[in-house]
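so my prof wants the structure for this chain in the tokens format not the other one, which i didnt know existed until like an hour ago. anyway here's the sequence
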Amino acid sequence: MISYNARYWIWITLVLGYNNPKVKKIFELYSDIREFYKGGEKEWRFCGIFSQNDLEKFNIKKLNEADNIIKRCNELGYSVLSIDDERYPECLYNIDAPPAVIYINGNFPDIDNRLSIGIVGTRSATKYGVDNSYKIAYALSKYGVTIVSGGALGVDCASHRGSLAADGVTICVRGCGINCDYLHDNAKMRKSITKRGAVISEYPPDETPRSYYFPARNRIISALSDGLLIIEAGVKSGSLITANYAIDQGKEVFALLGNNSPQNEGSNNRIKEGSAIPVTDFMDILNAFDNLYATDEDVDFNNISLEDVEAVPVKGNFSSVRRKEAPNNRISLSKLNNNVKDNVKAEKIHKKNLNLSNTVQKIYEYIGNEPVHIDKISNDLNIPVFKVLTSITTLEMKGLIEALQGRRYILK
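here's what i got, hopefully its the right format
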């Protein structure tokens, strides 16, 4: 399916480029974009929104260049959705610079009427990051949530694959044309996505990636998502650009709790400054969207098969990352549970002289060798839940306690 007026909107992108707020202004001024095209330079000057350079480009660029792109889309079997099509997502139109057109390979879901979560993070993910990306996407998909990500190595790839493993719907937003072979390792995954969801881009099918395409692409990921989860982001991570877009767009932002390594510095900082909600499992996300997700699934988060995770490509020496646990990584829940069962004599004790605040120290000393729920901590210690959560975040980041499913905690 190709929108009726797609050729004119493609022509406009060839003139103005991508990620340009003038596209939205043109749409608001003209109920029929053909009038804009046929009006010529006099009409374009009358708009009052174009520079002299823009006007010169409008005169140079020919409509047949757009027609060639549409022909290419027809050859490849791609759809093209223009901003004036009634099927164009409202959530995407509402941002400052919506794409004039979206190129689509697959089945683009009704994103405005189903809960969607974006998952973004480092390409150089650790085992902890890959496993959690996969498991959270899998579990959310079982609850009918659409997973949105960027198709990159590491976290993005694991998230898409987790959704596919759960027979869920996922959207891959590319920073290049959807026919471009960039990241060949993920080619089979992208093909699988088209059977359950869609691979999309604002760039023509064969457009090669450019460095500035990816930050611009991030605004689309956040726009299509009701909430955004950050997993393993350093202080200069592009994932934080996506988080900033999400905040500007009024979306919920979450971050997976990690250790104190540089790998997690950016996402942990967002938690500490209060701009991201800390996450230990998928229920922390679902709880923020009551009654917006399917409730006929009962997913055991700790028993999701990770067999498919071994195929997730990660930037760098992936094999060494997967076979060696990061020095400060948290112990897996299964390993923790086995240690408790098999070595009951190895009792955990509270460390002293940690220079914790009074509230944090009090909560730390309360948590023991048996899992305890956050509500019980709050009630027994007479400390508000929000203060308990802040303190628990501190303790987790210091590697002193372990988070279990359902907001329960245990000494590490």
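also thought this was worth mentioning. The radius of gyration is 24 Å.
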